[in-house]
Amino acid sequence: MKKIIFNETTKESFVCPRTNANIYYQDGNLLIELSYNGAFGFGEKYNTINQKGNEVINKVQEQFCFQNDKTYAPNPFFFTDTGFGLYLDTNEITSFKFGNDGIVVSLNINTNIVVFTGEPKAIISEYMSLFKKAVLPPSWAFGTWISANRWNNQKEALEQIDKLKRYDFPASVIVLEAWSDEATFYIFNGAKYKEKENNEAFSYNDFDFSNSVWPNPKEMIEEFHKAGLHLLLWQVPVYKKQGSDEVINKQNDLDKKFVVKNRLCVMNSDESAYEIPEGHWFSGSLIPDFTNNETIKHWFGSRQYLLDIGVDGFKTDGGEFIYSNKVKFSDGSKGTEGCNRYPLDYTKAYHNFIGEQRVLFSRSSYAGSHNVPIHWAGDQQSQNSELKHALLAGLSAGLSGMIFWGFDLAGFAGPLPTLDLYRRATQMACFTPIMQWHSEPDGGQFKEIMSGGNETNNERSPWNMAEVYNCPEFIDEMRFYHKLHNSLGPYIEHNAKLCVENNKPMMRALVYDHPTDIETINVDDEYMFGDALLVCPLLEENTKQREVYLPSGNWEGLFDKKEYKGNSRVLVNMNGNIPVFVNKKADIKQLDLIKVYD
């Protein structure tokens, strides 16, 4: 690892395991001459894991579904299969052009560059070591998760406990999105209270819940905990501009006046308060400036009572809200840095607030995201192509140092998935760190912009899928994978600890462990899950078999118990199960932890 200040005199040569690399300045760009077959990293990318031949823009962007080359969580870091890696220590938007014989990087003069040489696992580990140590989530985070934007009252939320018992499904986390007043995003909907001014924080006893749809949140959380469920509440970093169809929330107005007066929100260079532009999510809203300690005190002072009553974490949505270079932050930084840096300012502030025994579930991020786990793949529709996009996102995230990741099983938006898509997505989710299904509200929150997304019975729970399709046996089939994920809990937790200790992802594209095997360079539909399991998802509708590439090693089918030779391509059919193979050369302790639910 070597640190360089990029400027007009930059000219360096590096000896890598399978190539020599020369980097130098030319016409305002950093040019890298080297031979390579694949370039990997760049954060959570949905289009491919090998970016050779592409131009990659390193920019945080909010994109509803079908992300393609856009991403919520970019990273100015990459490595090649031939042993060269590079990290740009900048928050500014940059581009990488990957040609056949070299790479062109556009960036500002006097940018810090870190160059790595070695195998992928060493490069990724050294890159991660540039930041604070990775954070290990509590063990309960590795159970199964249930989530919905449709559970908008206490009665319906608590009914999920009964449904889990009735259908015999395990779960360790429940995520409530539609819990708040949809204005302050820190007060339960329907609560009565006396408004507070001048930064005075609420306590739980300040609220009268007698006429609320959440009549006793503290008691509700206690019921969740008794049932083994940990509660996450949805968050978004805005001081909301309410619409003309909404009843004006006086507390929200007081909060906005206070933060503008005290400059606790992101400001424009002309000293006015920055507002999210028209045409974007939460347009007209202000956003908190998390580089300001007073902002942090104000923002989390309002939310402390939620931790006091037992909330176990937050789903930190959004964060892609800087659309202007003319903003400025309390710490003196400018808008050119804000677009990419804001998500980390936001999630780091939440992480510091909740501590390491609670969890975040975040959509947007940037370099060093392993310090603020956990992340999910954002918005996907319930379409077959989106399952492959989610897999690509998870694998590229792993190759960028993101350890703990999940996705909305079979998508959350639009028409319900087919039973087969739901089945295959459940199988894949079973072999990810976070197995979670998530649903829209009744009727679909995006029905105006998509066809067919207006079903009132659109919950993505396994039991609702079985009911809608009149297929009661589907519940039994899905229960198997939920319980399998739980039975793999000791294996998942063991590998989670190893990943944190050794700076390595839990989901690893094959090139991570086998960079000299040319066959692995473009394998983007298989991955190692921990050190012992090779997972090969079924990505085509109604397919029962697929070709898999088995890298070097001795392999055994997890379900069929057949022996398979490495360095070979095999057509496999697991009789409806996802093809998963056990590396028989893995550590014996790892092998002993692999328990298949019977």
Secondary-structure blueprint of this entry?
Elements: E1 2-6, E2 11-16, E3 19-26, E4 29-33, E5 39-43, E6 55-58, E7 74-80, E8 84-89, E9 94-98, E10 102-106, E11 111-117, H1 120-128, E12 144-148, H2 154-167, E13 173-176, H3 217-226, E14 230-235, H4 250-261, E15 267-268, H5 293-301, H6 304-308, E16 313-316, E17 327-328, H7 335-354, E18 359-362, E19 375-376, H8 384-398, E20 405-408, H9 419-430, E21 434-439, H10 462-468, H11 473-487, H12 489-502, E22 507-508, H13 510-513, E23 527-529, E24 533-535, E25 545-550, E26 554-557, E27 563-565, E28 568-573, E29 580-583, H14 588-593
Distance between the termini: 48 Å
- The CATH architecture of the largest domain is Alpha-Beta Barrel
Class computed from helices, strands and strand pairing = alpha+beta
> What's the number of domains?
3
> Strand content of the residues, in percent?
15-25%
What is the CATH class of the largest domain? Alpha Beta
CATH fold-level topology of the largest domain: TIM Barrel
Mean pLDDT: 94
Strand order of the largest sheet: 18-16-14-13-12-21-20-19
CA radius of gyration:
24 Å
CATH superfamily of the largest domain: Glycosidases
| Helix proportion range | 25-40%
The DSSP helix count reads 14
Q: What composes the largest sheet? A: 8 strands, parallel
Low-confidence stretches: none
Q: Looking at the structure, what is the overall shape?
A: globular
**Strand tally:** 29
